[in-house]
Amino acid sequence: MRALRLTNWDAIHSKPHKISMQISIAHLNKTFFRKEQRTIAYENLNFQIRQGEFFCILGPSGCGKTSLLRTIAGLESATSGELNIQPLGSAKPGTIGMVFQEHGLFPWMTIRNNIRFLLENNVHMVNRDLDAIVNEFIKLVGLTTFADYFPHQLSGGMRQRVSIARSFANEPDLLLMDEPFVFLDYQTRCALHGLLLEIWQRKKKTVVFVTHDIEEAVFLADRVLVMSAHPGTVKTIVDINLLRPREFLTLRKLPVYQDKVSELMELLREECEPFTRNNKQPA
Questions:
Q1: Comparing C-alpha atoms, which of 100, 66, 83 is closest to residue 232?
Q2: How does pLDDT run across 190-245, given as a tens digit for each residue?
Q3: pTM, 2 dp
Q4: Sheet of strand 37-49, all strands in order from the earlier edge strand to the far edge
Q5: Domains of the chain
Q6: Which end of the chain has fewer CB atoms within 10 angstroms, the N or the C?
Q7: CA–CA distance, 32 with 130 (Å, rounded to integer)
Q8: Which residues contact 254 (CB under 8 A, 6 or more apart)?
Q9: What is the Cα Rg of the chain in Å?
């Protein structure tokens, strides 16, 4: 698949909606209750996400990453603590978009109409050329030939590309992404990394991105929050400090990139070691 490049953005998105978000989290806890069982998803989280930052959340399976992201999105409630999401640059409330691991497309709508539906219900898209926006983002994810297909006629990877295009086109002020590239092939994943960064660099929206992929986190992020194993706590926050714009094949050859990958690998190894010891078979 060709590298995805953003073209004619300003012409397509005339009068762009420019708000970004900052997030403040203090003593945040999430516990699930089921009958007499009590399961802590995450506990005593304290951190801030800066305006316009690309912020990755990295941690072992079961540490509460997705639960935290869903709490920020307003899809779940925390058990206790404070979560403040502050729109900057406007007195009006900002908008939040979310990309899930599964595509979440409407099965009765074509790919074109799936993207257009969100735009039609976004008050910030009034007086925009919606057809031009839809066509451009379909082209950007390489699905022009399939624009009038229905979701069941596409592969799983193609459906997820539509979901990502839909979220990008809707131009949210805060974009939450829950391992959106996990089911995509390597070439498509790399291309969409580039597309995501190009949109982010142009619009400076706040992005919160959950991943298990250390190299993905280093390539995309300004900072990476590393969570401990279950129950999830903030182990540390790592500043990436790599120059932008970033090109993956060039960046991965640099010693500073390799050092950041090694640093995160060591942090995660420390969290996985207890699990490995507890599950080791006796000799």
A1: 66
A2: 877 887 888 788 777 899 999 999 999 999 999 999 999 988 999 999 999 999 99
A3: 0.83
A4: 37-49, 20-34, 80-88
A5: 9-107+174-277 (3.40.50.300)
A6: C
A7: 42
A8: 242
A9: 19
